[in-house]
Amino acid sequence: MAYTYLDITNEVLARMNEVALTASNFTAARGFQVQCQNAVNDAINYINQREFGWPFTHATETQTLVVGLQLQKPYW
Questions:
Q1: CA angle, corner 14, sides to 49 and 42, nearest 5?
Q2: What span, in angstroms and rounded, lies between the C-alpha atoms of 22 and 38?
Q3: CB 7 within 8 A of CB 36
Q4: Which of 1, 7, 36, 63 is the most buried (most CB within 10 A)?
Q5: Under a CB-based contact definition with an 8 Å cutoff, are residues 48 and 57 in contact?
Q6: Model pTM?
Q7: The pLDDT of residue 69
Q8: Helix (H) or strand (E) holding 8
C-alpha cells in the first residue's frame, strides 16, 4: 500500500491516540498535530539525504539531443 504524507502523519497520530487529520484540515493543524507533521517530514528528509542507494530517492531519464534544437524546460 502506498502511503501519502497525510497517511503517514495519521499513523503517527493514531499511535499517540490523537485526532486524525483530513485533507481539508491538514494545513490548519495546531499543537501536537503540527509536531507530528514536522516529525514525519524530518524522517522523510533524513531517509532521502542518507540512503542514496534506495531507488525511490532518485529518478533516471534518457533524452535524445538534436543539434540546432533548444531544450524545453521540464513540466515539473
A1: 15
A2: 16
A3: no
A4: 36
A5: yes
A6: 0.62
A7: 80
A8: helix 5-15
Closest to 26 in 3D by CA, of 18, 41, 12, 37 = 37
The pLDDT value recorded for residue 11 is 93
Amino acid (one-letter) located at 3: Y
- The closest of 33, 34, 2, 38 to 16, measured between CA atoms, is 33
Is the confidence at residue 10, as pLDDT, over 90? yes
H or E element that contains 33 = helix 32-50
| CA distance linking residue 48 with residue 58, whole number of Å | 9
The span from the CA of 46 to the CA of 18, in Å, is 24
Residue 47: what residue type?
Answer: I
